[in-house]
C-alpha cells in the first residue's frame, strides 16, 4: 500500500519498537464481518440456515468473519435484513454502548447505520433510538438501513448537533458520537481515506470532534453515558479530544471499558496534559487483532443541570383519516400494532413513546412507517413488511432463497399464486421481504422500485 509519508513518520515516532509489526499489517488483507440482525432471526437459527462459513468475532455476540468470496451482500437474506455487513472492529462500539430496551438513546453521527442497527438490536424494539446524520444524502441511506433491518423504534433526523441540543437538553440515557475522523484506521479498507489524509486535516477533524462532543454532553442526562469512537489512530483526535473535553466541562468521568483479548489502552503520554484516566479508554490495532483501527472512550455524566420541561410530541387528532388503515389492518394483519399513531401528510407512522416534538427538526423517518393513506384505501409500507413476521399477518407467501419465484419477486415481477384475495407478506424461508397483492391467481408486486434487482445474482 502507498501510505502517506507523514503518516508513517508520525506512527513510527509514536509506536517505536511496535512500529514494524504495525507496518506489516498493511501487507495483509482486511477482514470482512457481518452482524446478525437478532431483531429478525435468533442467533442459533441463523447458525442453522447460514449459507456462509462463519467465524465468531470475539468481542461481539452476533458478529462473524466471513470469506469475501461468499458475497453475503448479494444474498436475498441481505434484502430481508437478516444481517448488516460491518467492519469487525466497528462492532466493538455497539457492544460498549450497550443500550437497554426502553432507554432513550441518541446516535449523533449515524450514517450509514452500522452502529444504529447494532444499538437497535440490543434495544429489542423498545425505547427511543434517535439516529441523526448531518448530510442529507447519507441520512437517506441511514433511513433505508433502518427500514431494511425491520427496526420499529428509531427516529431518523438530518440535523446539526447544535439544533438537536436545543430540543433535547439533558434528555438521553446514552449517546454515541461515532465521530467523523481522518480515517487512518481504515486505510486498508478505504483507499480514499488514505488519499485524502493530511496533517492539517487531522487538526481540523479534532476541532470538529470536540465541538460535536460538547453538544452531545449537553444532551446527556445526569448519570447517563456518552461513548466517543473514531476509526483513526491520531492521538489528537482520540485521547486529545477526550482530554480537552474533560478540561472544558466538569461533571464527567472516564469509565473503564470491558477489554477483550487484543484490545489496548489509550495513551496518556501521546498528548500534552493528558488526563491520567485516559488509560481507561481503548484502542483497537490491526496488528493486535483481526480488524481495523478504532478508538473508544466512555464518559459518565456524574452530575448535571436540572432538565427543562420539554414539549411532548404532537398528539394525533385525526382518527377519522385512519378508517382505511384500520380496515387494512383487519383484513391483512393478525392484529393492528399498538402505539402512538401519527400522520405526516398522508404517511402513517407509529412513533416511539419517548419522542419529543419534531417541530422545526428535519426528520427523515419519524418512527415506524406503516404506509400511505390514499383515497378510500391504505397502502402498507415496505417498513411494515420488513418488521413483520408471517404469523403477524393473515396471508403470507413463502419462497425459498434459491427459487425462481424469489428472483422474479426481487426483479419486481408478478408471481402466480393461489389463495384468497388480499395483501400477502412475501417471505424468504420464513423471513419477510416485501408485500404482494393477490387477485385472480396473480400476486401483484409491491417490492419498492428503488430496491429491485436487475439480471440474476
Ligand atoms: C464515522 S461516520 C459514522 C458511521 C456510522 N456511525 C456507522 O456506524 O455506520 C461519521 C458521520 O458523521 C457525519 N458528520 C460529518 N460532520 C459532522 C458534524 N459536524 N456533525 C455531526 N456529524 C457529522 C458524517 O457525515 C458521517 O456520516
Automatic annotation (TrEMBL):
Entry superkingdom: Bacteria
Active-site feature positions: 231 (nucleophile)
One Pfam family of this chain: Methyltranf_PUA
SUPFAM superfamilies cross-referenced by the UniProt entry: S-adenosyl-L-methionine-dependent methyltransferases
Residue ranges occupied by any SAM-dependent MTase RsmB/NOP-type domain in the UniProt entry: 22-302
Classification via PROSITE patterns: NOL1_NOP2_SUN, SAM_MT_RSMB_NOP
GO biological process: RNA methylation; RNA processing
CDD domains membership: AdoMet_MTases (cd02440), RsmF_methylt_CTD1 (cd21147)
Recorded GO MF terms: RNA binding; RNA methyltransferase activity; S-adenosylmethionine-dependent methyltransferase activity
InterPro entries noted in UniProt: Methyltr_RsmF_N (IPR031341), MeTrfase_RsmB-F_NOP2_cat (IPR049560), MeTrfase_RsmB-F_NOP2_dom (IPR001678), Nol1_Nop2_Fmu_2 (IPR027391), Nop2p (IPR011023), RCMT (IPR023267), RsmB/NOL1/NOP2-like_CS (IPR018314), RsmF_methylt_CI (IPR031340)
Entry keywords, A to Z: Cytoplasm, Methyltransferase, RNA-binding, S-adenosyl-L-methionine, Transferase
Membrane spanning residue stretches: none
Binding site for S-adenosyl-L-methionine: 109-115, 133, 178
NCBIfam families referenced in this protein's UniProt entry, alphabetically: nop2p
Family statement: Belongs to the class I-like SAM-binding methyltransferase superfamily. RsmB/NOP family.
Protein's name in the database: NOL1/NOP2/sun family putative RNA methylase
